Amino acid sequence: MADGWLDFERPLVEIERQILELRSCSPAETADERRLQELERRAARLRRDLFARLTPWQRVQLARHPRRPYTRDYIGHLAEEFVELCGDRAYAEDPAILAGLARLSGRTVAIIGHQKGRTTRENLRHNFGMPHPEGYRKALRVMRLAEKFGHPVLCFVDTPGAYPGIGAEERGQAEAIARNIREMSALRVPSLVFITGEGGSGGALAIAVGDRVYMLEYAFYSVISPEGCASILWRSRERAADAAAALKFTAPDLLALGVIDEIVPEPPGGAHRDARAMAARMGEIITRELSALEALSPQERLTQRQARFLNLGAFAEPAGDPPRSV
């Protein structure tokens, strides 16, 4: 993946490069139209075949794709204006969480999301998208600000998980995550959550309690990473692909289980191939759902939101007892 493309994408990327070369012919050089059309048909067919039979592990690779759009990218395509708010007013600023107020189609909203980097320097600055407790406390500060002024909250989730370092634990990582979950469940303003890439454990859930939870087609959302699961079950990270298949954390799996409300289709080949089109699809959902949620009273939203999460994990006893929740 040295050039930024995944191994299973390479046959497609090669054909696309040939198409670009033919299209870039100067006026003095006549492009072979027949050859161009044939390559475009081959590319479309290969893209359809590749992405129709992705394994769970390949979906993990796509969710972690180095070209995949991050929160700041989506803000750039969605927002007419964005004012970033920094710091938790207690300890420090955490660049792994991006938060602030934005204007979307004339509506003021709070946007909170995990942020990764594209270069080594950027990834170190953003701690590879793994927040410290101050990142979650900053997120909560912005949520409370939004609630105070009656602005909806949008959350974009893309993290391997909360940072597990000693310093983070000393500063109350678990408490910060638990507090966010509790406070988000009681927000009186509409809230929408998008799982855009990796949805890693409590680090994801800390900003993922919303009225509606959406998941991009090739994202994943799990209590543990495939590598972590493989290390526990098989004592080897080399079995990550087997763990990915066993965890049932892909968008279709989670839609069937009722963990998410809707799958957001990605552009052909994934969100990294057309971030603008991906953002446009998300924007349509945001406009539609916020209008529907704003028509409800705060108490109706609270009741529905809390019922949604309390009903997760429902099961029925063999004797035919009514479903229970774990």
Any overview of this molecule?
With 326 residues, the chain is of the alpha/beta class. It has one domain: 2-enoyl-CoA Hydratase, Chain A, domain 1, CATH 3.90.226. Helix content is 47%, strand content 16%. The protein has helices spanning 10-23, 33-52, 56-63, 71-78, 120-125, 133-149, 166-170, 173-185, 201-205, 226-233, 240-247, 251-257, 275-294, 298-310, and strands at residues 81-84, 97-104, 107-114, 153-159, 191-200, 212-216, 220-222, 262-264, 314-315, 324-325. Strands 1, 2, 3, 4, 5, 6, 7 and 8 form an eight-stranded mixed β-sheet that branches. Strands 9-10 form a two-stranded antiparallel sheet. Helix 1 runs antiparallel to helix 2, helix 4 crosses helix 13 and helix 10 (226-233) packs across helix 11 (240-247). The longest helix has 20 residues, at 33-52. The model has no long low-confidence stretch (mean pLDDT 89).
